[in-house]
Amino acid sequence: MSTILVTGGAGYIGTHTLISLLGAGYHPVVIDNFQNSKPEALSRVRQITGREVPVYAADVRDERTLARIFHEHPIDAVIHFAGLKAVGESVRMPVSYYDNNLISTLRLIQAMDQHGCRRLVFSSSATVYGDPARLPLTEDAPLSATNPYGRSKLIIEDMLRDLAIAARLGGDAAGTAWQIALLRYFNPVGAHPSGMIGEDPNGIPNNLFPYIQQVAVGRLKELQIFGADYPTTDGTGVRDYIHVMDLAEGHVEAVRFLLGGRGAAAPGGSFAEAINLGTGSGVSVLQAVRAFEAASGKQIPFRMAPRRPGDVAACFADAGKAARLLGWTARRKLADMCEDAWRWQSLNPLGFAQG
Q1: Which of 52, 172, 314, 340 could join 177 in a cystine, given CB atoms 3.0 to 4.6 angstroms apart?
Q2: 149 catalytic, yes or no?
Q3: What is the CATH number of domain 3-188+241-277?
Q4: Tens-digit pLDDT profile for residues 289-314
Q5: Is residue 206 within 8 Å of residue 89, measured between CB atoms?
Q6: Domain positions in the chain
Q7: Which of 124, 122, 127, 155 shows the shortest CA–CA distance to 315?
Q8: DSSP 131-184
Q9: CATH class (in words) of the domain with range 208-240+280-354
Q10: 47-59 mean pLDDT
Q11: d(Cα 44, Cα 46) in Å, to the nearest integer?
């Protein structure tokens, strides 16, 4: 079975994707600098799957380590998760986001090209749609960005599209075609049903669900809801929340898509295909809070705070293209997301720190 390099494989989405890859018979290899992740998460993956995964503790910008990985393993495709990912932090630290996210991708595709591996699943984001003009979002919607995090994702998408165009202009000589899936996913939440792995952010969470979870378990006093005056049903922001295991399975289907040569271009030709991964349903912050209260039996105290720079009122997907191209649809409901998230947090109130 094929060997898949997973950058940022110790992170929240990365670890869940490792489990799905292993379950599908693939051989993943991980590179992670553990800036936003913890080695214990990979130990839990081993416990869940009974499988060892080669791990390189390094930054993706480290050219020597990348060369070593491609020398030591027959990499058939890459899933690229590595990168900084907090919207609010990106507004405060734009240079760090451009340095980390852009340079790591450049180094990665250079190493891939040098070693003849040109199949890439890129972890993009719904933030590339900016402030949506219409909903639900389809892949042909106008692209823009309202914050440096989203802009870094959009720049990388442009880089990868240019890469595929250049390969086509060069005639897609044997072995030189680039086949790229740009997975634009929405808001991953939940955890593995075992409760052994889940989202464990450093410091105060930037995302809604880990914040709710830490309030529920007593680590934080109350939830801050940023913005109560959006033009939505209840005034709070609306997002498309997707279970992290559905998202992980979407990455496995994208790998199959690339390895099977089922791209939009002629067989063997270059392409960079944008694909939404979402449920197609919008959920407001207050609706998410109530759903989590129902799943956990805990009351979530909250207070309203001003809008955060870079946030948009509403964002949810049209995921029809994923169904057509990948044969993938999100199967798990909001209640499943809340139940699995609570199981993880209640069994691990301090996250991986107690592992």
Answers
A1: 172
A2: yes
A3: 3.40.50.720
A4: 999 999 999 999 999 999 988 788 99
A5: yes
A6: 3-188+241-277, 208-240+280-354
A7: 127
A8: S-SSSSB-TTS--B-SSHHHHHHHHHHHHHHHHHHHHHHTT--TT---EEEEEE
A9: alpha beta
A10: 98
A11: 5
